[in-house]
Amino acid sequence: MNTAVLRDFESIVGPRGLISSQEALRTYECDALTNFRVCPSAVLLPASVEEVQGIVRICHREYIPFVARGSGTGLSGGALPVKDGIVISMARMNRILEVDLTNARVTVEPGVINLDVTGRVSPQEYFYAPDPSSQSVCSIGGNVAENSGGAHCLKYGFTTTHVLGLEVVLPDSSLVHLGSKMLDTPGYDLSGIFVGSEGTLGIATKVILRVVKRPECVRTLLAAFNSTNEAGAAVSDIIAAGMLPAAIEMMDNLAIQAAEAAVHANYPNCGGLLLVELDGPEAEVQSLMEHVSDICRRDGAWEIRIASSDAERMLVWKGRKAAFAAMGRISPNYIVQDGVIPRTALPRVMDEIARLSSEAGLRVANVFHAGDGNLHPLVLYDRRISGQEKAAEALSYRILEICIEAGGSITGEHGVGEEKKLMMSRMFSEPDLDTMQRVRCAFDPLNLSNPTKVFPTPRLCGEKPGKYEPHPLEAAGVAERF
Amino acid sequence: MGGSSQLAATKTIVEDSLRAIVGPDHVSTGEHLLVAPGTESEVAAVLRYANELGLCALPHGNSTKAEWGNSPSRTGIVLSTKRMNRILEHPWADLTVTAEAGCTIGNLQSALAQHGQRLAIDPLWPERTTIGGLISTNDSGSLRLRFGSVRDLIIGVTLALADGTLASSGGNVVKNVAGYDLPKLVTGALGTLGVITRAVFRLHPLPQNRRTLTNVCSDINHAQRLLLQIQDSKFAHTALQLRTDSEARSAEIDILFEGTVAGLEAQEQQLRKLASSSKIETRSDDRWQVREALWSDANSAISKISILPSEIANAVQSLQSITAANRCRWAAVFQAIGIGTLSLSSSDPHSLHSALTALRRHLENTGGSLVLLRRVQGLPAFDSWGTTGDAQALMSAVKQQFDPKRILNPGRFVGGI
Q1: Mean pLDDT within B104-128
Q2: Does residue B51 sit at the A interface (CB-CB below 8 Å)?
């Protein structure tokens, strides 16, 4: 990057807000998806919305692509830098700006850590519901980009359910307010389209969140089954009985072993472990919990435990939330996948995954948000064995194809990012993708904000739909197709 | 050939072309040129044709909310979804449903109820409201407090764009972040971005039991306090609303509990404790249709207002002083989440206009909004929407990308979109 531009950036963020040495840039060459790496030209750490605008103004003037980054915990390469582009880290914009519990609203800057929102409102017994497993380190800005979920979104919804308004710096550096503290702001639901757009529509600089009152009572049931299919049948029966638990999670034997090795959660050693959490008024939870226990027993559970104290519940959840990282205990390397299937397809898809796993000679551990059909197969491999990484990647993509064939999705909460953009063409037709990109053209006609992500091929704005014609900028040699 | 005969000839060509697309029986030429396609590709073909000619297309479900928004700036083809009214798929064990845009909410709910399920939303006039109309107007009722609005329940959509593109977004599963969330973008867009041809929703189980309780509060401040107390409590209530009007000195609070008998009993006891000074009575569930009652006075203007939950009493007090000054009568129901429906009436449309203007100014100054849903005869010009702040240019840019010739419902939406 030429030094004049670097000086311009430095004049905005100061010397401490600019990282440009090769050594230091290395930290930013990937997010939690580590098999893709690109070194950015510079990393900028703005401390205010004005500084973000200043940076983006230069990017717009110089046609420099930029990628916003929160804590870098993303699992699909959403914060992967773009060649010859810069990374804008939101880490210094980490203030909680307003807490208005009368209206259950909290306004934060994007660098605030997910769990810190709950931490701030828990004395008044409120919490911020979206709870990705990385919640102790991931940022709200990253959650907004990815529309993060978590175990409790079965009942409470996703990030998008809890974001009411946003302040956004658009890729032309202008500042807009989408949504507000109130519901149903007149006009298009642009905050609804921004959440989950994976950083491709601009940079959120302020987020208005909804927080939720803690329920009177929370109980977590742990049930041991011989197989995931038996556990899956219990999930279907719980749903069919008209219950909506706060969370239903499932782990297979390999995942249980890993969790045990890592955090000693004291799980029963079984073929399919089910974790069902109910919350609400005490009388309600008690009577429903009996019902859930009966269903599990009928479907073959041979051990049932109910955790009622906070400490017991924490231990139960600790094993589940540590499941991904725990794979390190049983395998040198692993790929986390994130497919979704209609819940009823679970037995069929599990059998198919088992078959593919044995065919490929690679172990697959399974952790699911079983209530909403969100699978996290973990494909285990050893990078040192030649060809295994490729085989593991192929297997993980094949699992996603099975999800699509079952009528599901290639991602439930991790996002498309860099990793799965080619899979988008398997899930959507060309007109579908073209229509989505019309939104992008309205927000970012120069394709500067996290370009190259989400979509398999960019649509240059201003071109006629369906047919490629060089954009005037491209024709003039100013911009290239990424 | 004279001008008028040329026009007539063009009209005939257009009608014949449309008949060729949707079949001769599905084009009618009364007061409006009404076209009723039977399939998604027919919808797309009608739009492509209209777009090429620069003819406007006005999407229509069952006309329950045709008056919402500003009047279209141009007339054109009325594109009816009435023939596309099927429930396409209800995989009940997966708690989802796919239906065509012309299916009424009433028909949908009856089909779902056979499996003990519901679409957890309670819009106006469900027997007549279509899915396309529900999504496009983003109407919501009392259940919103617990289950969210259309945006929180819709998981997939298929759209026919102005240029005839048919595109789907979202999918059949509840949890899905692949690609942009177009179902949310078209929710509340009043048909200005595309014609919705089908939608997929997530479902909820029907409750085992329900109980509606009402508390008469001595005044609006008392009602506001109780409402906030309930919201700050650990109740798992499904709905909570506040009703009052210009003639009443009191305000009533309705609360809905759903669940097991044990759960209902326990919560009712706790509620009685919480509201000790007041009188709580069990009421019938028709309390929750009170919004429809506000519409029944055909001479009243109806608005949707959005404020913070803590500002309801303030809004009512402003409403009282503004309507007293302009000699209007009013009645309102506020959902505890801050969405209110307001009926305003006066013998003089100019007074009504002054009251609406003053009220909108007051609400917008505190970050809220007032959207006029139904006008009255003789009401001077009044934009339905009010301000969209600094987001208007972006909204217009989105419209430009989806419908550059502005053939879909032109002029009805915010900022002249």
Answers
A1: 97
A2: no
How long a stretch of residues is chain B?
A: 417
Smallest Cα distance from B91 to chain A, Å:
9
Nearest to B178 among A101, A284, A411 (CB): A411
Domains A3-89 and A216-329 share a fold: no
For residue B179, the model assigns a pLDDT of 97
Closest CA–CA distance from residue A396 to any residue of chain B (Å): 17
Give CATH for domain A3-89: 3.30.43.10
Residue A470 — very low, low, confident or very high, per pLDDT cuts 50/70/90? very low
What is the DSSP track for B247-291? T-SSEEEEEEEEE-HHHHHHHHHHHHHHTTTSEEEEE-GGGGGHH
Nearest residue in chain B measured CA to CA from A214: B234
Contacts of B185 in chain A (CB under 8 A): 188-190, 192-193, 439
The pLDDT > 90 percentage for chain B reads 92
Mean pLDDT along residues B148-176: 97
Q: Is the dihedral of CA A375, A381, A383, A386 positive or negative?
A: negative
B159 touches chain A (CB under 8 A): yes
> Which residues from chain B sit within 8 angstroms of residue A186, using beta carbons?
369, 371, 385-388, 414
Average of per-residue pLDDT values in chain B: 95
Smallest Cβ–Cβ distance between A281 and the set B165, B266, B398 belongs to B266
* Angle B41-B46-B48 from CA coordinates, rounded to 5°: 90
Q: Which residues of A48-73 are buried (b: 16+ CB within 10 A; e: fewer)?
A: ebebbbbbbbbbbeeebbbbbbbbbb
Q: Which of B171, B259, B402 sits opposite A284 (nearest CB)?
A: B259
Of residues A241 and B192, more confidence is placed in B192
Comparing C-alpha atoms, which of A206, A161, A190, A82 is closest to residue A440?
A190
**What domains appear along chain B, each with residue ranges and CATH number?**
87-205 (3.30.465.10), 212-385 (3.40.462.40)
CA A56 to chain centre: 25
Q: Does B365 touch chain A (CB under 8 A)?
A: no
Sort out which chain B residues have CB atoms less than 8 A from A174's CB and list them: 390
User: What pTM did the predictor assign?
Assistant: 0.95
Q: What percent of chain B has pLDDT over 70?
A: 99
User: Which positions in chain B touch A176 (Cβ < 8 Å)?
Assistant: 390-391, 394
Which DSSP category does B379 fall into?
Answer: P
What is d(CA B41, CA B43) in angstroms, rounded to the nearest whole number? Answer: 5
CA distance A448 to A337: 28
The domain over range A216-329 is classified in CATH as 3.30.70.20: no
**Residues on chain A touching B394 (C-beta within 8 angstroms):** 170, 176, 190, 442-443
pLDDT, tens digit, 9 for 90 and up, residues A87-133? 999 999 999 999 999 999 999 999 999 999 999 999 999 999 999 98
What backbone phi and psi angles, to 5 degrees, belong to A208? -100, 115
Q: Give me the pLDDT at residue B113, please.
A: 97
CATH number of the structural domain A96-213:
3.30.465.10
Backbone angles phi, psi at A274, to 5 degrees: -115, 140
Of the two residues B32 and B382, the one the predictor is more confident about is: B382
Nearest CA in chain A to B151: A192
* Minimum distance, in Å, between the CA of residue B48 and any CA atom of chain A: 13
Residue A467 has pLDDT above 70, yes or no: no
User: Which phi and psi (to 5°) does residue A64 adopt?
Assistant: -100, 120
For residue range B262-290, list pLDDT tens digits in order. 999 999 999 999 987 668 999 999 999 99
Q: A182 and B174 in contact by Cβ < 8 A?
A: no
Return the domain boundaries, chain A.
3-89, 96-213, 216-329
- The Cα–Cα gap between B377 and B380 comes to 9
pLDDT at A478: 42
Which spans in B348-409 are helix H?
349-365, 392-402
